[in-house]
């Protein structure tokens, strides 16, 4: 009990009065009190520079890092860690070393627990043997996981290869389609050019025949106009001369 009080008192002496935790970068004031550097800075942001414990005014030049106190804190922390580790290897109930493993409860126990009623007729094995069995189970499980990993990697590689093959096949089909449409486009362009050429030839032929026909009609129209003019002149002549026009009219009457 005295040992526990001493440890508690030591922990209090190594704790900052502001944050109540182990000192971090401890500094000493001229009054002799110690604080964490960060706690002191935060405290002085809101108040004047004075000791948070005794209220004595402090000059910044009077603040000194306490490296010895920092070293003591680190030593106590290490001792606490070692004690915690040792505590984990002993029975919390009987403070005896854990040497056995209860398979029914699946928990390590000490030799005193083995005699207890709660472990009566339970199957016990040495802790080292249980540890070996557990390690073997872990190893077997790891082997299973590794095999499963290899299967997944193989499947992944196979899937990636199938995907690559499919992409390449799709690209080949795409190239074929593009080439086919290009050939079709070239064929249609040639057909378009040939058809346009033929249509131009037909247009020229129609235009030539039309011009020829118009020329012939113009010629006939000119002849007819001259004949009409001549007939108009004859129409004004006396009856004896007018009758002489009949032979001239015969060809035109026959054409009608």
UniProtKB/TrEMBL annotation:
Keyword Aminoacyl-tRNA synthetase: no
Coiled-coil region list: 185-234
Entry's Gene Ontology cellular component terms: cytoplasm
Keyword list, A-Z: Coiled coil, Metal-binding, Zinc, Zinc-finger
BP-aspect Gene Ontology terms: innate immune response
GO molecular function, one term: ubiquitin protein ligase activity
Domain B box-type: 86-127
PROSITE patterns: ZF_BBOX, ZF_RING_1, ZF_RING_2
RING-type domain location: 16-55
Listed PANTHER family: E3 UBIQUITIN-PROTEIN LIGASE TRIM (PTHR24103)
Descriptive protein name: Uncharacterized protein
Organism field: Anolis carolinensis
The organism's taxonomic lineage, starting at the top: Eukaryota, Metazoa, Chordata, Craniata, Vertebrata
